[in-house]
Amino acid sequence: MIEDTAEKIRSMEIRGAGLIARAAAAALRDFVLTLDVSSLDEFDSALKKAADTLLRTRPTAVSLSNAVRMVARYRSEDLESARREVVANAERFIESSLKAVERIGEIGSRRVRDGDVILTHCNSSAALAVIERAHRDGKRIEVIATESRPRYQGHLTIKRLDEVGIPTELIVDSAVRSVIEDVDLVVVGADVVTANGSLVNKIGTSQIALCAHEARKPFMAAAETYKFSPDTLMGELVEIEERGPEEVLDDYMRYKHLRVRNPAFDVTPHQYIDVICTEVGAIPPEMSYIIIKEWLGWEIRA
Fold it and tell me: Any idea which residues are catalytic in this one (predicted)?
């Protein structure tokens, strides 16, 4: 179960920060339920090995590392109590994650006005929650969605928006500057929010934020609190995942003097972000420290 889930996360069969986190939590839950050990030490060793396997799959995704740490943390001093505690941690995390997305949609949609054209990038359940809630509330909105190359996550976004009946326009990533004047609001998700409020998200996000800033268009990030990074509070840098060149150019080996770069994420400075909508409220990026300290707590760094 652990190896299967890890491979699905690594290959992006399971994609999206929230889905990755919930999948990892469920995998750890199922793993400990069937784990056949006779001592707490064996349980602890096996759990750590399983957690490490999951953590190695997507190095940038703080949602994954936070989920794994939250689930695997236990205080029980006997085997069966520890097993029950990890299972309860996993189920609590999954439930709270799903509720967080719903709450973000409720909070973020209040900043959407009737008649708005919304630009979104990649495929984010939190960003979609904001857009869909505004639609359900009767606001007449339209969406411009990027393809989000090279994995084309934007195709998942337009499929979902079409299913719920929201008029949508699909554009290539490089067309953002050409359409930004038609946009009233940018809404994106998040893979990581750092201690200073900067955003690590799908590659191309920072360019969109720059265009929005130049055009004076509001830029909203939708992020569950478990996407905030406690490690950045201690000065650690977020590792930007580099994926394989075959995602960009399938026959790259035919070229003798070519190097293909495929960073999966980029960093948007907090100065370009107007608001971060979380399940505990809409905050300016400068308040990210408070989320890390008050809502995640210091223990998650251990």
Answer: 122 (proton acceptor), 191 (proton donor)
Q: Which single residue is written with the structure tokens 């905050």?
A: 283
Q: Which two tokens stand for residue 51?
A: 């957690």
| pLDDT > 90: percent of the chain | 86
Q: What's the half-sphere exposure (Cβ side, CA atoms, 13 Å) at 72? A: 27
Which residue is catalytic, options 191, 211, 231, 274? 191
Query: Is 251 in the active site?
Result: no
Helices (H), 11-78: 17-34, 40-55, 62-72
17 is in an annotated binding site: yes
Interacting residues of 96 by C-beta distance below 8 A, sequence separation 6+: none
* pLDDT tens per residue across span 120-137: 999 999 999 999 999 999
Grouping H, G, I as helix, E, B as strand and the rest as coil, residue 238 is coil
- Say whether 159 counts as a known binding-site residue: no
What's the CATH superfamily of 104-301?
A: Translation initiation factor eif-2b; domain 2 (3.40.50.10470)
Q: Please tell me what DSSP assigns to residue 266.
A: E
Question: Is 15 labelled as part of a ligand binding site?
Answer: yes
Q: What is the DSSP letter of 229?
A: -
Choose among 91, 124, 15: nearest CA to 60: 15
CATH class of 2-101: mainly alpha
Look up residue 12 and give its amino acid: M
Prediction pTM value: 0.89
Annotated binding residue 202: yes
Q: Exactly one of 122, 211, 231, 274 is catalytic; which is it?
A: 122
Q: Is 191 a catalytic residue?
A: yes
Tell me the pLDDT tens digit for each residue of 151-180.
999 999 999 999 999 999 999 999 999 999
